[in-house]
Amino acid sequence: MRPFPRIALCLTLLAMSAIPAICQDPAAGAAAGAGAAAGSVLPWWAWISLLFVTTFLIGIVAVLGGVGGGVLFVPIVGSFFPFHSDFVRCAGLLIALAGSLSAGPSLIRKNLASLRLSIPAALIASAASIFGAKLGLALPSKAVQLATAGLMTLIIVLLLVTKKSAFPEVKASDALARFLGLGGIFVDEATGKEQRWSIHRSLPGLAIFTVVGFMAGMLGLGAGWANVPVLNLLMGAPLKIAVATSNLVIAVSSTTAAWIYINKGALLPVVVIPAILGMMGGTRIGARLLARVDSGLVRIVVIALMAVSTALSFAKGLGLMR
Amino acid sequence: MKAKSGYALVLEWGSRLGLVLVVTAFLVYLIGLLPSPMGMAEIDRYWGLPLADFVAATGIPTGPGSWITMMGTGYGLAASWAVLFSLVALFAYAAIAVPTILDRDYIYAVFIVLELALMCAAMAGWLGA
Questions:
Q1: How far apart are CA A158 and CA A225, in angstroms?
Q2: Does A44 touch chain B (CB under 8 A)?
Q3: Does residue A1 register a pLDDT over 80?
Q4: Do B51 and A267 touch (CB under 8 A)?
Q5: pLDDT value at position A24?
Q6: Does the pTM exceed 0.95?
Q7: In a domain? residue B129
Q8: Using CA atoms, how far apart are residues A118 and A110, in angstroms rounded to an integer?
Q9: Taking burial as the number of CB atoms within 10 A of a residue's CB, which of A6, A114, A147, A301 is the most buried?
Q10: Is residue B29 part of a domain?
C-alpha cells in the first residue's frame, strides 16, 4: 500500500474517533430532558461543518470498505452528534438514496445492475420498509438505539465470517427465475470476458427482502449490507451484479420508507443536506482511491469504526450515556 | 432495453437536478434570504428533541404535502428540494411503466404499477404516516 492512502486512512480514523472527545461537554449527561445543544460546546455552524466533514470521510471509507454509507452514517452520527435519532435515521435513508441515485445510471449502462432482478426485490423490500419506518418512529429512541446496536453486531459478524464469491456456481436456475427472466450477460472489465449469469433459490432469496426492507426502514441504515449477501451468496448472482443491483433496490426501498419520515416532519435540512453533499463528495474520492488502497486494511478500519459506534449505540440504548 | 435506458436517464438527470436545487435552497436557508419558522441561530435548541416534541416546539406542519406548504420559507424550501431526491425513483418507475406494457411484459408491468402505487400511497400518507 502506498503512503498516501495509508496516511489518509489513518487520518480518517483519527478524525472520526476524535469527534466525541472534541465536541461533547463532560457535564452533558447531567442535562437530562434538555435539548442536545444544552450539552454542546459548539455553535450550530460548527456541528454542520463537522457533519459535512464526517459524512465526507464516511463516504470515502464506505466505498473503500465495500459497505453502504448508511450503515456507518446512522450509528456514527447517531452516537457522536447532538441530533435526535429520528432525524439521523431520516437522513440515513436519504443519503442511501442519494448515493444509489448517483451510482445507478452508470451501473445500468454497464449492464451490471439488473433492473429485472431489482424490481421484485425492491417491491418486497419497500413494502416491508414502510412497516419498519412506522415502527421505528413509534419506538422510544433507546429501543431504536439498542436495535441498531444489535443489528450492527450482526453485520460485523457477517463481515467477519462471510466470504463473497465473485462468480457463484449456479447449476440450474429455478422455475421462478426462469419465469421472471432473471439472468443475463455482462462484460467483466477486469478480464474483458463476457460472463453469463443466472439465479437460483429465487423464492427464499426474495422472501428475505421482507426482513431486509423492514430493518432498513426501521433503522434508516440503507440495505447494502444485506442485499449483497442475499443476491450473491444465496441467489447466486455474480458479486458485481449483486453490488450494482443492490443499488437499484436501495433507491426504491429508501424512497418509500423516507416518505414515512418526511410526512412526520423528520426531514431536518441542516442534517440531511450537509450529509448528502458530504456523502456524494466522499464516495467520489473513495472510488478514485479504490484501486490504490489495501482492501484488507480498509476492511479492518471499517469493522473497527462499526464496532466503536455499536458500543456507543449500546451505551446510549442502555442509558449509560446521553 | 428502452425501459432500461429510460430508467437510467431519469435517475441521472433527476439526481443532477436534485443536487443543484438542494445546494441552492440550502444556501438560501443558511444566508436567511427567506423567513424561516426557526432561525439558524436557534436550530440547535431543537435538533436534539424527539420528533413529536420538535414538531410541538417549532410548529412545523406535518402530514402529506406539508413540505409544499412551507416552500415560502427558507427552512421549507431547503426541505422541499431535499424531498426531490425521493421523487426521482418514482419518476424513474413511471418512465418505464409504458415501455414495459408495450413490450407485453405484463408481470413486470404489474410489479411496476404496484411499486408506483406503494410509493404514491406512502407519499400521500395513506399508509398511516
A1: 9
A2: yes
A3: no
A4: no
A5: 45
A6: no
A7: no
A8: 15
A9: A114
A10: yes
Check if the beta carbon of residue B80 is closer than 8 Å to that of residue B24.
no
Q: Cα A273 to chain center, whole Å?
A: 17
Q: Which value does ipTM take for this structure? A: 0.90
Q: Which residues of A touch B41 (CB under 8 A)?
A: 44
Domain count, chain B: 1
Query: How far off is chain A from B81, nearest CA to CA, in Å?
Result: 9
Please determine, for residue A27, whether its predicted confidence score (pLDDT) is greater than 60: no
Q: Tell which residue, B47, B128, B68, B44, has the closest CA to residue A87.
A: B47
List of residues 6+ apart from B96 with CB closer than 8 A:
A115, B3, B4, B6, B7, B112
Q: What is the C-alpha separation between A102 and A94, in angstroms, rounded?
A: 12
| Contacting B residues, span 65-84, partner chain A, CB-CB under 8 Å | 66-67, 75, 78-79, 82-83
Candidates A133, A100, A132, A134; CA nearest to A118 is A100
Contacts of A119 in chain B (CB under 8 A): 108, 111-112, 115
Domain membership flag for residue B31: yes
List, for residues A59-102, the tens digit of each pLDDT value: 888 877 767 778 889 888 988 899 999 999 999 989 888 888 88
Residue ranges making up the domain that contains B27: 2-124
Per domain, the residue ranges of chain A are: 3-14+43-317
DSSP string, A37-69: GGGB-S-HHHHHHHHHHHHHHHHHHHHHHT--H
Q: In three state form, how does the secondary structure of A233-270 look?
A: HHCCCCHHHHHHHHHHHHHHHHHHHHHHHHHCCCCCHH
pLDDT in tens, chain B (129 residues): 567 788 889 988 988 888 899 999 999 998 888 888 887 888 889 999 999 999 999 988 888 888 788 888 888 888 888 888 888 989 999 999 999 999 999 999 999 999 999 999 998 888 765
Q: What is the helix, strand, coil percentage profile of chain B, to 5?
A: 75, 0, 25
Residue pLDDT, tens place only, A135-192 = 998 999 889 889 988 988 988 888 788 777 778 888 889 999 999 999 999 887 777 8
Q: Which residues pair with A185 in a beta bridge?
A: A196
Which among A86, A263, A272 has the least Cβ separation from residue B50? A86
The CA R_g of chain A, rounded to the nearest whole Å, is 19
| pLDDT score for A33 | 39
**B84 lies in a domain?**
yes
One-letter amino acid identity for B33? L
